[in-house]
Amino acid sequence: REDAAKVLCDLAPERGTAEEAAEIADQLGRLPLALTLAGGFLAHQVISPWSMAEYGRALGRSNELDPIELLDQGAGYSGGDASRHLASTTWELSLNALHAQGLPEATTLVRLLSCWSHDPLPLPLLTGSDIDAVVPRARVETALRGLLDHSLTRLVPGPPRCLRTHGVLLDSIARSAPVDQHDLLVSTGAALLGAVVPDVSRPWAREDPPLTPYVPHTLALLRRATQWTGVGPTAMTRAMACALRLAVALHRSGDYASALSVAQDALTRGTQVLEATHPAVIAIRQRAGRSLYRLGRYEEAEATHRHALADCTAVFGASAVETLESCAGLSPVLAWALDRKDEAVALVRRAVEGRTAALGPTHPSTLIARTYLLEFTAGPETHPDAGAALVSDCHREVGPGHPITLDAELNHGFALVSAALQLRALPLVRNVVTGSEHTYGTDHPKTLAARSLLSRVLGELGRFQEAA
């Protein structure tokens, strides 16, 4: 980083500090050509010279100013044939050489890479069968080797083993990609991401591979889909579906901040191509509401859920499963954050009744709504067996240790505690703590919630040393 900053400082010593130069170098991926172009631009301005801070801000405003065009303005000060020093065309020399060697697929592959981020890209992403849509799978290995040989990308040791490609190169390649390929490239990028992001029907497990490596690539894909012309609703819907699955998986893993970041970015990008009432947009809005609630941003969570509920009602109807999902999502915000439990109970009863009619009483979605209802109605008058049938149904339908079962058992324990039946609740809550530690790990928010209830039970039984 220091060496890259020094290049800029040597070329334009009066334009800023070493730290400002380092920040620009980071933005440019510390690529020598890009540093030379940026330094040349800064050093040779006459009428109204920019500072390094101003240049860095301009690079970051990609929606207002093309960063590649800005870099290319520095080529005029390099001497000789400026066309050989343009960020927008330098890579073409290597790609043309690969084409002459019988590797035209290398160009298509690097265009696919330009759909994603300059962050390390897990290599399993390139093994999906959907890559056949742009590069025959039998040629992917050879095309990638060509890119590596020409230093257009590089390997990063794992696990997982990754590729890393300069952001300047990716932006330049994306800028020159033929318009008639934009839709196919985005669609393929989304399909390949979809093959590695967990399906929402499968519960998260702590043994699952880390999800964070895929976050920057999902966000970059959404950004590219809105930057490129010719990307249609179908391709954007696929990208949104990827973002939804990633946000759900991140949320279930307890990383609520990353889940919200993905959901909010998807909302911003998705509505540039799709209508605000498109099902994919509504689904990601529902997910944003859940993450906002978990992060304690309750007023935003309520507004987001009410927006989604209104859209669902208008698009799908009052009794549709999508609308009932919004009812369930809004209910805990009202019950626990805004002290409007009566409204929360009414919403979740609606979800239970609607899901029972549409899906059956023991469908996983119905079990979740029944778990909410048990939690919201717990109190001194709660019958000791109020949660027993729910827990039994969970054991039978999804199995012991399943996240839905653990939630039901925890809320059954909470209902028993609320009814002053601590001794009966104690073994149940202990089992939930053990199950949560096994399923989620010791630091997951759900494990911490189970421990908190266990501590409360022990304290109310006078077993203060254990409670501590």
Structural class: mainly alpha
Q: Spatial order of the strands in the main sheet?
A: 1-3-2
Q: Mind summarizing the main beta sheet?
A: 3 strands, antiparallel
Question: What is the CATH class name of the domain at 378-468?
Answer: Mainly Alpha
The name of the CATH topology of the domain at 378-468 is Serine Threonine Protein Phosphatase 5, Tetratricopeptide repeat
Average pLDDT rating: 91
Question: CATH superfamily of the domain at 378-468, called what?
Answer: Tetratricopeptide repeat domain
> Mind telling me the C-alpha Rg?
27 Å
Overall shape: elongated
Number of strands: 3
Can you tell me the CATH architecture of the domain at 378-468?
A: Alpha Horseshoe
The end-to-end span amounts to 47 Å
Amount of beta strand = under 5%
Question: What attributes characterize this protein structure?
Answer:
468 residues, Arc Repressor Mutant, subunit A, 3-stranded antiparallel beta sheet, 66% helix, mainly alpha, 23 helices, single chain
